[in-house]
From TrEMBL:
This is Lipoprotein. The keyword Signal applies. Pfam families: DUF6340. The keyword Signal applies. It comes from the Bacteria.
Length: 301
C-alpha cells in the first residue's frame, strides 16, 4: 500500500467542505406535443440473410436483435403516453448492419393513415461487433507487457418520420460491455473472442439499447457535484442531506444562518443555496447564494 503524504492527510483533516450531489434535469432529446401518441415500427433487419459462414454467429445476432425488439416493447409498455405497433410486411427485410435508403413518403403516410398513428419508426440497421484496445505496460527490465481488452458493442440505426412521411430524426445509438481481455505476444496480433460465444452479453446490451429508446422523449435526471460545509456545527445538516431529509437540512441551516458569527452564517447561507438548488427552489437558491457572497466574500471555500 502506498503511503499517503503528510500534506494530503493534513488537508483532509483540515478541510471543512466536501462534495454533495445536486439533482438536475435535462430536456428530452426529442420534444413531442403533449398527449398520447401512437408509433408504428418497422424493422428492415433479418438475421436470416447475414453473410456469415458461422451458424453460431448468426444465432447470436438473431438473439441480440430479438432482445433489442423485446427491450423496445418493454420501454414503450412502461410509458403512459406512448404506444407502439409493429408492422411486418410494409418493406422487404434484409441483413442490414448498415443503414440503407429511406422509406418513401407515400408508404409512411399510408401506413400512418391506416393505423391512425402519429409517428413512424424504421429500424434501418442492427449490428454487433468487438471494439479492441491494447494496453502496454513497461516493466522495470525494459520489456513490455501488452494486454488486449475487448468490448462487445451493439448499435442500431433508427429513422423517425411524422405521419406525413417527413423525416424528423435519425438515431445512431450504441451500448457496450466489457467482454474479454487477452495477453498479446509481441509482434503478433491478438486472437479476438468469438462472436458465436457472445450470446449472454449480446442479449444484455441489446435489451438495454432497445429499452432505452423511449427515454429520448422524456427529461433525464443527472447529478452535479457541489461543495458543502460539513464539519462541526454543520454535521447534522450534512448527515440529513445524505439521507435526503430536506426538511431537517433546511431547519438546521436556517438556525445556523442566524448566527452572530459571519463565518457560520455565511457557510449556512451557502449550504442553503445548495439545498434549494437541489430541491428546485430557484428564488431561494439565488437569495442564499448572494447572502453567502456578502458574508464570506473571498473566504468562500
Amino acid at each position: 500500500m502506498r503511503a499517503i503524504p503528510a500534506l494530503i492527510i493534513f488537508f483532509l483533516l483540515a478541510s471543512c467542505s466536501t462534495m454533495v450531489p445536486v439533482k438536475k434535469t435535462s430536456s428530452p432529446d426529442i420534444r413531442l406535443p403533449l398527449g398520447k401518441k401512437e408509433f408504428l415500427f418497422i424493422s428492415r433487419f433479418t438475421a436470416d440473410s447475414l453473410p456469415f459462414n458461422n451458424d453460431n454467429k448468426v444465432e447470436v445476432f438473431r438473439m441480440g436483435y430479438n432482445s433489442f425488439v423485446r427491450g423496445l416493447n418493454a420501454g414503450y409498455d412502461s410509458s403512459r403516453y406512448y404506444n407502439i405497433t409493429h408492422l411486418d410486411s410494409l418493406v422487404e427485410r434484409y441483413a442490414a448492419t448498415e443503414p440503407g435508403p429511406p422509406i418513401s413518403k407515400e408508404k409512411v403516410r399510408e401506413a400512418c393513415l391506416e393505423h391512425n398513428a402519429n409517428y413512424f419508426l424504421s429500424l434501418n440497421a442492427y449490428n454487433l461487433y468487438f471494439d479492441q484496445e491494447v494496453e502496454v505496460v513497461k516493466q522495470e527490465d525494459g520489456t513490455k507487457d501488452r494486454t488486449a481488452y475487448y468490448d462487445l458493442v451493439v448499435e442500431s440505426y433508427i429513422t423517425m418520420y411524422d405521419k406525413d412521411g417527413e423525416q424528423l430524426h435519425q438515431f445512431h445509438d450504441e451500448r457496450r460491455i466489457e467482454h474479454d481481455k487477452r495477453s498479446v505476444i509481441s509482434g503478433l496480433l491478438a486472437v479476438g473472442p468469438s462472436m458465436g460465444k457472445a450470446d449472454k452479453n449480446a442479449v444484455i446490451i441489446s435489451t438495454e439499447l432497445g429499452r432505452g429508446f423511449i427515454q429520448k422523449f422524456y427529461p433525464r435526471a443527472y447529478f452535479e457535484q457541489r461543495q458543502f460545509y460539513h464539519t462541526k456545527v454543520f454535521k447534522s445538516a450534512y448527515k440529513a442531506y445524505l439521507m435526503e431529509d430536506w426538511d431537517t437540512v433546511e431547519a438546521e441551516l436556517l438556525k445556523l444562518s442566524e448566527s452572530s458569527k459571519p463565518e457560520i452564517a455565511g457557510k449556512a447561507a451557502h449550504n442553503l443555496a445548495v439545498l434549494y438548488e437541489n430541491i428546485k427552489r430557484q428564488d431561494d437558491m439565488e437569495y442564499w447564494r448572494e447572502k453567502a457572497r456578502d458574508l464570506l466574500g473571498e473566504k468562500l471555500f
